[in-house]
What we know:
Blueprint: E1 2-3, E2 9-11, H1 14-25, H2 32-44, H3 60-65, E3 72-76, E4 81-85, H4 86-98, H5 107-110
Antiparallel strand pairs: 1-2, 2-4, 3-4
Amino acid sequence: MTVDKDHCLLVYPLHDWEELEQKLVQLPSMNKAARRIVRIMVGYATDVEMDGNGRILVSKELREFASIEKQGMLIGQGNKFELWNEATWNEKRDAWLSDEDDGEMPADLESISF
């Protein structure tokens, strides 16, 4: 589990995280943007395990970063989950759904039918 720039938490299966972490630590250390993302994502990375009831314990630092107090939203993203403060998720979701100016669609998405 680690942090995301949108102030949610990212939850990866261990194998996927290890692959991503390898890519992150190989970024050029003299590049300011690369250093920042490595410091944040790798620096906050925390191993978590499920208990017998399928729950995970989220550290105080991660809960504070994502402003998660009582209610959270777990959003599946294919190879990972995002864990959001429920109110923040609802606000962001509503803003994204009402955004009429989506800009240009990336070429990779043009061939996908929804």
